[in-house]
Amino acid sequence: MLRKSTFYALAVGAFMMCGGVSLWGELSYSAKTTRADAAVESSSNSVDDARVRFMTDVRAALALASRENKPTLIFFMADDCKYSRQMLAEAFHDSEVVRLAQSFVCVAVDMDDPNNSGVCRDYGVVASPTIQFVTSYGAPLQRVPSAQSGERLASYMESALAAVAWRAARVIETEKLLR
Question: Domain residue spans in the chain?
């Protein structure tokens, strides 16, 4: 009997670590929705500089990223999406996310704007919120679908920066081999 209950406890733990955590995380967002809506309203009244600043023109953002040799964080959002508003109010105000955002060119794409349909099609994005990390020369790095907490977003940002560093190191090593 003890073996059976131990097995079930381990199975539940493994489930929570693999797929159940994301389900649990999404369910907990609904409890925070009222706080997110209140945060959006209150942030418009107060001066809060600790947030990520977004460009709105993807072409200009990619050109800037190329000039500055920085990866790009593209935030696909919709005005009527409560999870997009929640990320803008919470995750993009997280101090670690704000610090890491300085290493990126950040651009927000309004999926409801018909002028942005080509960008959404180019990156294959059909749902909001979605974050697409792109290299300085436009190659897709990593996609993050669904709403994320500040802590989780920061870990995705660190992962994207590590991928950029790895690609740069690989290019240097290839150039050394070709000499």
Answer: 58-178
Provide the b/e sequence for 134-151 (b: ≥16 CB within 10 Å): bbbeeeebebbeebbbbe
pTM exceeds 0.85, yes or no: no
With tokens 């960008």, the residue in question is 119
Name the helix (H) or strand (E) containing 101: helix 95-101
CA 154 – CA 161 distance, rounded (Å): 11
pLDDT in tens, 97-128: 999 999 999 999 999 999 998 999 999 999 98
pLDDT digits (tens, 9 = 90+) for 18-54: 433 333 333 233 333 333 343 444 444 444 468 889 9
Average pLDDT across the chain, whole number: 76
Q: Supply the DSSP symbol for 108.
A: E
| 58-178 is a CATH 3.40.30.10 domain | yes
